[in-house]
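step 3/5: co-fold with adenosine-5'-triphosphate
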Amino acid sequence: MIQEVDRIQNMLDQLLQLARLENGSVATNARDIDLVLFLQDLRSDWTARLEERQMQMSIDIPSAVQIHTDATLLTLILDNLISNAWKYGREGGKIVLSWHAAYRQLSVSDDGPGIHASHMAQVFDRFYRLDDSRSSSVPGAGLGLSIARKLAEVLGLGLRLVSREGEGTSFILDFHDKG
Ligand code: ATP
Ligand code: MG
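step 4/5: write tokens
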């Protein structure tokens, strides 16, 4: 019962976030961010959950990188992507946060089951979950990626995914034009 109330509360929070984003009533406050420090902080928030599933998270950024964006909204985007890598990734698996300097792209990759090409566009739709996720005990409303994409739009960033079934999934945030 308490779990069910939590689930509904969480979904209402997500719907409210989406409504605010659609309203254009989300303020942004861009600042310079040291990407490595920022991701190290984010990773420390995930330590306990990573241990729970015996997962590793590595940060693969060769040299210092500065980005200019809203830290709170970027955290919300990355938390959604990491939460998926954590939930759908395999137990004992690896999550990699990496920066591709030439393209100014930040990616969140996992070595989980992957997403078949025929579902790639739909995972960004509201309430869309793959059959595996629906039938499993992994909780979720299917709203995280639609929120992440809206947040990315607000920040002027592209968000797309690359995946191979059986190998893993990468979500790529594109800072090429912004930040
Ligand atoms: P919520 O994020 O609202 O808690 P959710 O995780 O099911 O629920 P989304 O984050 O929008 O919703 O993801 C939609 C669906 O895409 C998921 O249910 C899952 O089927 C699939 N998916 C998302 N990320 C991954 C991933 N990294 N690996 C495999 N499948 C994924
Ligand atoms: Mg999710």
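step 5/5: annotate
The mean pLDDT is 95.
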